[in-house]
């Protein structure tokens, strides 16, 4: 598994748990159903079936791949609209090309993150580059949707291209875990993502038989998704494995432990850990639009149909058609 790697012995370490800190218990563990997105790339709907009250401010998170494409197989999404939230695309393997109608865009590489604030609305496309389509190869990543509070629903669209070197790297207290902080604060160490809604998002790799205890903002909720490997989560050491999401209760620490023996496809237990300050407002969704009321959704659909969310630019990127198939 590529992404960003480092020698944990040389990194700053998160502090060990204090005796007075409360470990977060596990409220539920769910298994992500599989489906397809865009032009047909496979995803796991990691938050499917979990109530928004438990997820707030997160709307959904798709685990894209892991898939080893043959030549001509890689697929992305066509041009499509968004309004009312932010998308966060984190790549572990492969590449994606992004462009939006508000001038944002670039190439997302292994270990990189694209942070797009849709806000008042835009059109965008995410698609594999020509060389990946023609040659095939590994593709693996995540896309997270983060809600915007009512006061920011119509903020101007914005784009952040976070490079692999931008990610804040930490080690667990005992050095057995590598922590990549994409956004938010972990023990005073701040990730590069600039967010409207207070959140923390990180990718942790826990060595076999290792244990990671993370200090966590008490007012945030807490979610743990295991993308590879197996182990336990929470104060009660609840078993969890690849493709499962744990919803945690109140407390000041999140604890993960990796099984001594991992499966043959991974050297460590790999997990996405995320949480945020709940917005606590009504949320209604219709496909790529996330608003506060049904009336706002109707208005948004009308705006899209009338071209008020933006237009595809003249220099638009389009999904690459493999040579010989045009």
Automatic annotation (TrEMBL):
It holds the Pfam family Pirin. InterPro entries: Pirin (IPR012093), Pirin_C_dom (IPR008778), Pirin_N_dom (IPR003829), RmlC-like_jellyroll (IPR014710), RmlC_Cupin_sf (IPR011051). It comes from the Bacteria. Residues 42-146 form the Pirin N-terminal domain. Residues 202-309 form the Pirin C-terminal domain. Gene3D superfamilies: Jelly Rolls (2.60.120.10). Belongs to the pirin family. This is Redox-sensitive bicupin YhaK (Pirin superfamily). It comes from Microlunatus panaciterrae.
């Amino acid at each position: 598994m590529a992404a960003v790697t480092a020698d944990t012995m040389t990194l700053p370490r998160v502090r060990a748990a204090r005796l007075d800190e409360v470990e977060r218990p596990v409220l539920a563990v769910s298994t992500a159903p599989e489906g397809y997105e865009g032009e047909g790339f496979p995803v796991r709907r990691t938050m499917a079936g979990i109530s928004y009250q438990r997820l707030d401010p997160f709307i959904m998170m798709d685990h894209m791949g892991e898939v080893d494409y043959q030549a001509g197989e890689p697929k992305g999404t066509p041009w499509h609209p968004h309004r009312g939230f932010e998308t966060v695309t984190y790549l572990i393997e492969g590449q994606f090309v992004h462009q939006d109608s508000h001038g944002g865009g670039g190439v997302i590489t292994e270990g990189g993150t694209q942070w797009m604030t849709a806000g008042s609305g835009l059109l965008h496309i995410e698609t594999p580059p020509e060389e990946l389509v023609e040659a095939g190869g590994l593709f693996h990543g995540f896309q997270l949707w983060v809600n915007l509070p009512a006061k920011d629903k119509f903020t101007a669209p914005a784009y952040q291209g976070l490079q692999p070197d931008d990610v804040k790297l930490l080690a667990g207290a005992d050095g057995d875990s590598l922590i990549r902080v994409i956004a938010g604060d972990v023990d005073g160490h701040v990730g590069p993502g600039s967010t409207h809604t207070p959140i923390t998002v990180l990718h942790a790799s826990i060595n076999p038989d290792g244990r990671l205890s993370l200090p966590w903002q008490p007012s945030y909720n807490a979610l743990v998704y295991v993308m590879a490997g197996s182990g336990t989560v929470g104060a009660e050491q609840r078993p969890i494995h690849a493709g499962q999401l744990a919803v945690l209760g109140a407390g000041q620490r999140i604890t993960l432990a990796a099984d001594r023996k991992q499966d043959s496809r991974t050297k460590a237990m790999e997990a996405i850990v995320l949480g945020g300050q709940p917005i606590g407002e009504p949320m209604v969704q219709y496909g790529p639009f996330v608003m506060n009321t049904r009336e706002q959704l109707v208005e948004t659909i009308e705006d899209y149909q009338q071209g008020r969310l933006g237009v595809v630019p003249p220099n638009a990127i389009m999904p690459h058609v493999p040579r010989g198939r045009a």
